[in-house]
Amino acid sequence: MKAIEYKLGNDLSVEQVIELYEKSTLGERRPTEFPEIFKDMIRNADLIVTAWDGDRLVGISRTLTDYAYVAYLADLAVHMDYQRKGIGKELIRKTREHLKESCFITLLAAPLADDYYGKIGFERNPRAWILRGDKEI
Question: Were both Cys, which of 66, 76, 89, 109 would link to 114 (CB 3.0–4.6 Å)?
Answer without folding.
Answer: 109
